[in-house]
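Holo prediction. Input below; ligand is cobalamin.
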Amino acid sequence: MISSARLLQLAHDAGFDRAGLSRAEPIPRETLLDWLAAGHHADLDWMNERVEERLDVTRLLPNAKTVVSLVCNYWHTDDASPIARYARGRDYHATMRDRLRTLRRSVRTAFAGVSDYGAVDANPVMEKVWAVRAGLGTVTKNGCFTTHDFGSWVVLATMILDVECDAYASPLDEDPCGRCRICIDACPTSAIVKDRVVDAGACLSYQTIENAEDSVPESLRPALNGFIFGCDICQDVCPLNVTPIKGGSRFEPRSVSRESIRALAAMSKAEFDAWIPGTALARAGFDGLRRNAAYALGAVKDTGARGVLEKLRSDANPHVVEAATWALGKLGAS
Ligand code: B12
Ligand code: SF4
Ligand code: SF4
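Structure of the complex:
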């Protein structure tokens, strides 16, 4: 048995804003299986893989006893940007992985013989569920994990240990949403299909990031009128997010977050190489970002963007061409 106070101190020293502990008990199966059965994972085939690991962390780390949930606050400014807040600075995956590496090293030094497993985002770990169990916040109706201090402007990482701690947290006994449903009504694509359940296929976050190598369904394109990477609408409207706290310097927005949609549509490969590597935007790639920007210009009927869109219409990438053609159609005849 190890000291929970010491473990939480090590997490704090590694740079995490909050940390909490829960017992490594299986997750109720319907939490994930109902979502998958409804097809809410869209083309995220990897969500359908390693399901048993997601539901039971002892399959990831034999004899797992403790799950450490780790939270970083990333909010910085209210400046308008077509990029979702979590992606405006250095890639959060790199920041969380660096901090996790530091924590794993210090845990091994402090508690000899302990084995661990670390996860950030892509691993088969249900990070929000663990953060709830660790008493760090709740999953609110917008499907986001929301804390008292930072609202939902947080990203998560998770560490699993094969040793028991001397104290564990309990989930908070509260529903901060109450009768509110502002986020559900504000979602432009009705992607929040019921309280706390998001249909990824309808979510602009999925369409602009995960579906970057295909076309966005035509019915969803008019909603792409402000974001070209991710979507913050259901968080921006949330009353639990009205007093955000500035995050650390690693989350400081980079210059690309101040570029206009037109500039991002017209981005050259050289500009892409200067602006994008090292940020989470790299996931959508050069073509995915320009495709998204073309949709956004069409969605807002930006007549001043006709020249940029004409150029994109003869691009080498078929999805960029298709998006530019659609957008020009929205602008109408010149
Ligand atoms: C798949 C995925 C997506 C999908 C689906 C979104 C979703 N809500 O599931 C898409 C691509 C749409 C997406 C979008 C976003 N994502 Co995402 N995503 C994930 C990922 C990889 C898996 C989530 C998952 O397992 N979903 C399956 C469903 C069934 O599980 P669930 O979301 O936890 O929901 C259930 C449980 O929470 C349960 N529940 C609620 N309370 C409780 C309590 C207990 C005790 C239990 C047992 C269960 C339970 O009810 C829910 C419905 O069944 C995680 C990383 C990870 N490994 O966890 C990041 C993650 C959730 N995403 C994250 C972020 C930042 C985002 C975006 C904000 C990005 C953006 N700005 O565009 C948006 C938010 C959209 C939204 N409104 O949810 C962050 C979380 C941020 C936060 N504060 O919540 C994560 C954790 C990544 C990270 N490591 O930081 N994402
Ligand atoms: S991120 Fe945007 S599209 Fe997705 S559920 Fe929230 S408001 Fe809807
Ligand atoms: S907008 Fe209202 S319902 Fe939605 S998450 Fe915030 S408090 Fe909950």
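The CA atoms of residues 141 and 181 lie 7 Å apart. That is the main takeaway for now.
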